[in-house]
Amino acid sequence: MKKTRDIKSVEQSLVSFYRNQKRMPTYTEMMDLFEVRSKSVVSYWIDKLIEKGILEKDAQGYLKLSGISFGIPLVGSIAAGLPASAEENAHDIVSMDDYLVDKPESSFLLSVTGDSMIGAGIMEGDLVVVDRNRSPQNGDIVLAEVDGQWTMKYFRRRGREVVLEAANPAYPTIYPREELKIGGVITASVRKYLM
């Protein structure tokens, strides 16, 4: 006799798929995950998961996880200067999404190419989080379209003039000739050391 699924096992199957595949499953894949034979039963479970706050629909009607935190333990701090004793105790659980992204609905990631921002600690291959709805302040790192070309630089206001500065002395300051559009403010960067 086949075991009846409950909401917790359906949720665990969905989260496990998302962690492994880095995407939401299709309805057909959910039939296998939830061990059901029809898409109407999948719809039933989706409605239950939305009701529970595990799933939500975005503006385009696509499903996304909402109530799941893929957190890891924050166990203390470590000295980056002189050696100090460290005590390893789980202080909290930190979700990297929550830590890095204040406004997921207006944020996206970009992969960095080039070395113009190395002085700001942003290296080639890093990922940067961009908030497209944040207004730039003097000194923010921004994603900008300058005279038809996209770049990431410091936003500097000099009186009425706005210029873009690199964090690498090998690159000149950019003075927009015709047009400057700000595509967003960089709010975080991430570097992965091991693949």
Protein described:
- Helix content is 21%, strand content 29%.
- The longest helix has 15 residues, at 7-21.
- The protein has helices at 7-21, 27-33, 39-52, 96-100; strands spanning 55-57, 63-65, 71-74, 92-95, 107-111, 127-131, 141-146, 149-158, 161-165, 180-190.
- The protein has a 6-stranded antiparallel β-sheet, with no helix packed on it. Strands 1-2 form a two-stranded antiparallel sheet. The chain has a two-stranded antiparallel ribbon with strand order 3-4.
- It has 195 residues and is of the alpha+beta class.
- A hairpin with a 5-residue loop joins β1 and β2 (63-65).
- It contains 4 helices and 10 strands.
Instruction: Choose one word for the global shape.
Output: elongated
The structure class reads alpha+beta
- Element-level helix/strand string: HHHEEEEHEEEEEE
With strands numbered from the N-terminus, the spatial order across the biggest sheet is 5-6-10-7-8-9
The residue ranges in which pLDDT falls below 50 over 5 or more consecutive positions are: none
Mean pLDDT over all positions: 84
Layout: helices, strands, pairs:
Blueprint: H1 7-21, H2 27-33, H3 39-52, E1 55-57, E2 63-65, E3 71-74, E4 92-95, H4 96-100, E5 107-111, E6 127-131, E7 141-146, E8 149-158, E9 161-165, E10 180-190
Antiparallel strand pairs: 1-2, 3-4, 5-6, 6-10, 7-8, 7-10, 8-9
Helix pairs in contact: 2-3
Short structural description:
The protein is an alpha+beta fold and 195 residues long.
Task: From the structure above, extract its key features.
195 residues, alpha+beta, six-stranded antiparallel sheet, 4 helices, elongated
